């Protein structure tokens, strides 16, 4: 049985071949399916179905909203589906729009095949006798599991230079989904706002 002219191994029947509708259509289906965008609910379903992947295979994962491709060694993320900005629920003592930087939000994005967490907005902080509220944890509700890093990630955030010697502080993104500012409150370091704009970390 001959194959296509593009070297993709897609078979087709010659006039001299024995008529066999099932063999002909199955041959096309089996050849074209692994060369198309396959669709699965999860990575687990994909892996259970495709036990011997071939380099170049591409699959969409509906639950994770990811386009994945097999590079010959492993399944890698090619692109992520659209991810809307989600507002962070702030703990008491913290407010959105610090320094007019907007509402504190996050979303998942794809950077060079790696799913990452991106932030934007500004946090206003109200101190009590120089102490930061909620032990410096800014979020009242933990980030959802899909937005939690596998290990602690630390990023640098710009802050006000008023009532502090600092121009930036650290933000820890913890595996349990908490967001904790590091450096505020110590030695009367009380910046009234911290900006999350332009910050991100890998998951």
In short:
The chain is mainly beta. It is built from two helices and 14 strands, in the order αβαβββββββββββββ.
Structural shape: rod-shaped
The helical percent reads: under 10%
Number of DSSP helical runs: 2
Sequence of secondary-structure elements: HEHEEEEEEEEEEEEE
Strand content: 25-35%
Q: What number is the mean pLDDT? A: 89
Task: Provide key terms for this protein.
four-stranded antiparallel beta sheet, mainly beta, 203 residues
Provide an overview of this structure.
There is one protein chain. The protein has helices at 21-32, 43-49; strands at residues 37-40, 58-61, 66-70, 75-80, 86-87, 94-96, 105-111, 114-120, 122-125, 153-158, 168-173, 179-182, 193-195, 199-202. The protein is mainly beta and 203 residues long. It has a four-stranded mixed sheet with strand order 1-2-3-4. A four-stranded antiparallel sheet has the order 5-7-8-14, with no helix packed on it. The protein has a three-stranded antiparallel sheet with strand order 6-9-13, with no helix packed on it. The mean pLDDT is 89. It is built from two helices and 14 strands. A hairpin with a 5-residue loop joins strand 11 (168-173) and strand 12 (179-182).
């Amino acid at each position: 049985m001959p194959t296509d002219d593009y070297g993709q191994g897609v078979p087709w029947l010659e006039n001299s071949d024995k008529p066999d509708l099932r063999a002909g259509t199955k041959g096309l289906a089996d050849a074209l399916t692994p060369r198309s965008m396959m669709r699965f609910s999860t990575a687990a379903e994909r892996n259970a179905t495709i036990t011997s992947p071939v380099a170049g295979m591409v699959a969409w994962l509906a639950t994770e909203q990811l386009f994945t491709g097999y590079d010959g060694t492993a399944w890698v993320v090619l692109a992520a589906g659209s991810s809307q900005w989600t507002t962070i629920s702030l703990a008491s003592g913290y407010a959105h729009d610090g320094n007019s930087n907007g509402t504190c939000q996050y979303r998942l994005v794809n950077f060079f095949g790696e799913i990452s967490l991106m932030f934007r907005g500004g946090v206003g902080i109200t101190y009590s006798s120089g102490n930061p509220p909620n032990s410096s944890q800014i979020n009242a509700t933990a980030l959802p599991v899909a937005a939690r890093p596998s290990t602690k990630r630390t990023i640098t955030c710009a802050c006000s230079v008023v009532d502090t010697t600092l121009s930036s502080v650290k933000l820890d993104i913890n595996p349990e989904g908490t967001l904790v500012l590091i450096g505020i409150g110590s030695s009367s370091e009380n910046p009234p706002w911290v900006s999350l704009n332009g910050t991100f970390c890998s998951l």
